[in-house]
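User: Hi! I have a protein structure encoded as tokens and I'd like to know what sequence might fold into it. I'm fairly new to this, so please keep things simple.
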């Protein structure tokens, strides 16, 4: 398959960078914190063999515009509305939506607020319940000091350690250059400011939890057995609280689609093929 095509689309008044590949039923991939659409690049080519895959950079991340918090509120609902607006910009119909971590909370909220847009929902190690943000995330949330740490002191070494010690599992083979690419996108004042605003806006997760009973789309929760950010018990709890939800536990850390991409592709294809069969 040829590589993804990149273009800019305005959504919620913010310029978003979007990667697209393939054709067929649409699958939207929503990334997590401190990364961008490239976190999906290990699964996007295979999914694009059967689907039209759309992977945006959320406002403030990757190559998308990074407006100040005074112009864009970096909360889950604001992100969800930006994705809903992206549907109009790309002329999309109902789509399967896959979200990881922060993107999982965005996907869940999108499905709850705009059920007509989401045909199937896949949540991968999704932000939902209050839990530790990891050593470096908690440091960044400290009053006064946190802003200084995240905006000025969090260098390449600490960024690598965050991913190696917290995000990826103990047996992960993810190489440092991949983490460095995420750091290069993060390492600009506007990007750091967006990340800090997002961290602070997502401390209180009660609004996300309140959305779970409203989910109508068939849903699958996928979790890493060795997730050191949010333990697998939270994924099991989430799957119980969404009606008819399935649950898959993989031998990975917090980022299964990067650590176990082949397994994720297999699971996603199987789940979405069930939707195709149900239509005929």
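Assistant: Happy to help. Inverse folding works backwards from shape to sequence: for each of the 280 positions I chose a residue that suits the local structure. Here it is:
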């Amino acid at each position: 398959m040829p590589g993804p095509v990149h273009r800019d689309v305005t959504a919620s008044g913010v310029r978003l960078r979007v990667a697209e590949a393939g054709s067929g039923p649409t699958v939207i991939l929503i990334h997590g914190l401190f990364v961008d659409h490239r976190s999906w690049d290990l699964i996007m080519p295979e999914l694009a063999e059967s689907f039209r895959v759309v992977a945006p950079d959320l406002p403030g991340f990757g190559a998308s515009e990074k407006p100040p918090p005074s112009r864009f509120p970096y909360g889950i609902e604001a992100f969800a509305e930006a994705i809903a607006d992206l549907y109009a910009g790309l002329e999309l119909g109902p789509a399967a939506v896959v979200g990881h971590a922060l993107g999982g909370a965005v996907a869940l909220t999108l499905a709850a607020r705009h059920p007509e847009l989401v045909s199937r929902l896949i949540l991968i190690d999704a932000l939902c319940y209050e839990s530790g943000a990891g050593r470096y995330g908690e440091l960044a949330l400290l009053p006064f000091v946190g802003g200084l740490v995240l905006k000025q002191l969090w260098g390449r070494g600490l960024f690598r350690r965050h991913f190696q010690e917290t995000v990826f599992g103990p047996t992960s083979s993810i190489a440092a250059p991949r983490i460095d690419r995420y750091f290069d996108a993060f390492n600009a004042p506007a990007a750091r400011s967006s990340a800090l605003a997002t961290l602070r806006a997502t401390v209180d997760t009660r609004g996300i939890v309140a959305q779970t009973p409203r989910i109508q789309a068939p849903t699958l929760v996928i979790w890493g057995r060795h997730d050191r950010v949010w333990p697998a018990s939270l994924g099991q709890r989430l799957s119980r609280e969404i009606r008819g939800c399935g649950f898959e536990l993989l031998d990975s850390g917090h980022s299964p689609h990067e650590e176990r991409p082949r397994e994720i592709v297999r699971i996603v294809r199987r789940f979405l093929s069930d939707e195709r069969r149900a239509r005929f």
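A useful reference point when you look it over: DSSP finds twelve helices and eight strands in the chain. Feel free to ask if any position seems puzzling.
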